[in-house]
Amino acid sequence: EVQLQASGGGLVQPGGSLRLSCAASGFAVDDYAISWFRQAPGKEREGVSYINVGRKSYADSVKGRFTISRDNAKNTIYLQMNSLKPEDTAVYYCARAPRVPFSLWRDPSYYTYWGQGTLVTVSS
Fold this sequence. Notes:
The structure is a single chain. By secondary structure, the protein is mainly β. It is 0% helix and 49% strand. It has no helices and eleven strands. The protein has strands at 3-7, 10-12, 18-25, 33-39, 46-52, 55-58, 66-71, 76-81, 90-97, 113-114, 118-122. A hairpin with a 2-residue loop joins strand 5 and strand 6 (55-58).
């Protein structure tokens, strides 16, 4: 059974850091495109970061602050988030796509499996 388990969210002050984890089971993370999305209250789900084989991509709003990585031995995808801002507050989801054109990785409709989400709150 394919499962994605997101964790690592919490409350952090502006300028702080968090590392999110997406533990996968039922498949190998290096065989699929995996992305992080986020959804703030009243807003649409937004693509944050993408990893597939050796290729990575980031939303402009997080470029230079967030880093996506993969640990094949642990079958886990990470999102290191630094210099967090209040506007980063959202529920963060990891998701798997069987196949997605690189230019369209931000489109949630390509993703068939989703983790349950982990809440990140950036506030003083």
